[in-house]
Amino acid sequence: MADLQVAPWTLVIPVKRTAIAKSRLASAYPQHRPELARAFAVDTTAAALGSPLVGAVLVVTDDPVVAADVTAIGARVVPDVPGAGLNGALKHGAAFAAAEYPASGVVALSADLPALRPEELTAALAACTAARNFVIDEPGTGTTMLAAAPGVALDPRFGVGSALAHQTSGAVPIELTTIDSLRRDVDTAADLAHAVQLGVGQSTADVMAMVMGAATGSEGLAC
Questions:
Q1: pLDDT (tens digit, 9 = 90+) per residue, 198-215?
Q2: Going along the chain, which residue ranges are E strands?
Q3: Contact 98/9 with Cβ under 8 angstroms?
Q4: Order of strands, edge to edge, in the sheet holding 105-109?
Q5: Is the pTM of this model over 0.85?
């Protein structure tokens, strides 16, 4: 993780309690869905911490297992005190970030980016030159990252149709063509298959190995 004096961004990653997260994966991964949700968050956090443009990563969550895992790799945990959903968690995290790291811009990052590569995140952050920028997800309608310069309100509008909502609010989309891992959020089994093709992080790979082992009755299979 970079020094806060030279790294211009503080990342806020909201993580829902894994007992209820990623419900659209339940049919394909009924036994491993909570563990996959946890692994996605850990791998996303690890990749974020690997970017030289990131000074701190704040994970907003009330999940004790996720909190322990991300703390162990260098993130700070902020309890989801508002309990007001995704955008409420992001506003809370952004306010905490602005108070703790006032010289840094604030970035909201989706927690379900298991294939995220630090170099692609770094490229996207370097391209954030407007007051607010965002990255459109792979399907083209959602948002995986929203960045606000120091002193600028984050104004998160995540949810259905968030790409249009963020653009309408004045945020400028990042047009890079080499950030596939940053665009690949995972909601469905097809999304996860694509993420695996891109190359997932260690935590997700470990869970996928367990999934494969359970499916074949063997152990030690990698995704």
A1: 999 999 999 999 887 765
A2: 9-15, 54-61, 76-78, 105-109, 132-136, 143-148, 172-173
A3: no
A4: 76-78, 54-61, 9-15, 105-109, 143-148, 132-136, 172-173
A5: yes
